[in-house]
Amino acid sequence: MTILRTFRSVEGLNAYGACRYGVAMPVDDGGDRFADAIRLLLLIAATADSLDELAMRAAPTNAVAVIHAESRLQKLDFWLRNPDYLADELLNDYERQPDPLLLDLAGRILDSEEPEICAIPMVRYLFGAFEHLDRALSVLVAPRLLVVSSQRGASGQVIKDSYYLTQKGRDVAEHATAQFPELAWYTERAVLVRALAEATGHTALALRKRQYLQRDYAQTPLGAIIPSIADRTRERLGCLRVAALGGNAA
């Protein structure tokens, strides 16, 4: 069975947690949901924390890695979906520590049409970039590629979700990129996202604070789409390249 058929085989199942936010989610044709599921699987496979022996005991059966908190997953997903913001953060790191590799990595993104072709815009919500992920997650949860464990408060309200990648999920992610080389882009960019997260502090709060340092992001009205910064970031890259050449010449 191909990776796409694996996802499509659960298309008729009800979405996991569709009513968690207290609103009815609109019916879709499944297309975007499966594309989102593939992206999220590859993102989680690349950025989730491996389980140590103690964590393994408390984890679901066959779990191999975990991302704690939906807010953290949303922040990681924002950088993957918005290559221009990812590149700008690489330039921020370059200005703090001028490693030519950072300039090169940002250039690989910005010298191409990646910020335009690969962008999947997100809406700014109360705590930053947000999108309902329940329908996409249902595609991963049903065949146990992912197990979502919810921590609830005294009132029964969900206070934190943990996203456990199973061995089956890891195998499917590896098989997907092997069978469809174009999907390797997600993994390559997710590795950069993980590096940014680790340098930032890796918690959802730390990631949110860093993303809010972006003027265009922070000034986006609630409920509006966070705008592209591709043009501004390309100009910035050009200036940094000129400065780097001047430094080398000196």
From TrEMBL:
It comes from Streptomyces tubercidicus. This is Uncharacterized protein.
